[in-house]
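pasting for ref
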Amino acid sequence: MSQKIPALIKRNVTLFSISQSFTGAGMQFSYGFGPLMVVALTGSAGLAGLSVALIGISRFIVAYPMGKITDAFGRKPGIFFGLCLALVGTLTLGSAMVFQSIWIFVIGLLAFGMGMNGAQQMRVGATDMFPPSMRGQALGYIALGSLGGLLLSPTLVFVAEPVARHTGLDPLGLPWFFLPILIVTGMIIVTFVKPDPKEIGMNLGAYWPDYKAPEKRTTIKPEDFTAMTLLRNPATRLAIVSNCAANGNMSIVMVLTSLVLVHHGHSLTAIAVSHMFHSVGMFAFTIPLGKLADRIGRSKIMFPGVFISLIGAALVAFTPNMITVTLGTFLVGVGWAAANVAATAFIADQVTTTERGRAIGLNDTFAGLTTVLAAVVTGPLIEWYGLPATGAAAMLLAALPFVMRAFTGPMR
């Protein structure tokens, strides 16, 4: 049974959610405009997957080390460091279009990606503050905050396009110069989160009067924690693979969507709106999905989520109609949300508070690696074999957890 959320916990998670709505707006630019910026700077559609690959590389680089830092010093220091790095990245990305330099773009997107992935410690903080029976719901609250960014992102583009026409600045670069206002606002909001979520997680009984610690613990001692302690567990491996499949599938679809819409002559604002529907799928249903994962079990949400993302990828790649393509991107978002929330909650359940940053960081590291591999092959597949080949690749990725489950067996 879910407990009533204490006022302090409700206040902290609300602050995180509001901060996420400001700071997360830029991620829509990186996925929606990143491929277009690469094509504009290089002239090659074969390199279109570079932007999504760089986001994956940044996650691969930073996720586990950032988890190690926040396990040692608290969640808020890691969040602040990440947002400062993202701030530098936004200005660098805008400058890349001013100077027409792909190398400045690469540096800027790596910095921005590492910063935003570092700020994902908000998710870890959310799981810290809630008992195991409500962790899926907690992750849903944080993800829901990204919906605010969905409204801010197209608005910034809508303002930037006429400004770009009057100033002669590149319309792909100008929105990035507006983002620091949102990121700084998000940082200010995080300062009001007190105490640090790690402190709450280590003393849940002091904040949740009805909380009773589980009698059985499946974790090892925190000082003995390594990545292999998670990977040795077949159920945890399956959760990580499912999350990777959903992320890899989505990275392919994100590259395809922008290129397809440009091919059909749609404006940057239209592309931003289309990606908004994808992001609605990613974030609008996270709370009910999280509650279901808490109520009926992580795997009963995770596997259907991966399957939905498979269907969405097929619609994007194999249908020519803009409505069906947008529906496909929406379904990929919904599938990703279900798989991500359920897999993250499952992994959070397996460890103590002092291990959780590294455990979820490891999950994000593998997701980042999958994103890199998926994005790297997308451009050449488009150029050499066309959209059907990319759709087949995305569907194969989504099918992997089901094959693995046949050999692993059901998750407990």
